[in-house]
Amino acid sequence: MNRYLEAFLLTIGLFLTTGVVIGFAYIIALIREFSAILALVTFVAVVGTIFFFLFLNEM
To answer: Is the pTM of this model over 0.70?
Structure first.
């Protein structure tokens, strides 16, 4: 159970870090209007959110 909690906290940290990276990529994409980057960032954000809520439901 303790190991599971560690994995959960690590996942949250990973999502927070990914969120910061996505935020910067999103701003760059908006400035340069790279629709491919924008689509990729949106996809990663949506998939990340879905996995996060699935992981939350497991708890």
So the answer is: no
Which amino acid, 58? Answer: E
Mean pLDDT of 45-54: 81
CB count within 10 Å of CB 12 equals 13
Residue 17 corresponds to which tokens in the numbers above? 């870090």
Other Cβ atoms less than 10 A from the Cβ of 34: the count is 14
What lies within 8 Å, CB to CB, of 8 at 6+ separation is 55, 59
Beta-carbon neighbour count of residue 13 at 10 Å? Answer: 10
Structural domain of 38: 2-58
Total tally of structural domains belonging to the chain: 1
Q: Is 2 exposed, middle or buried (0-12, 13-18, 19+ CB in 10 A)?
A: exposed
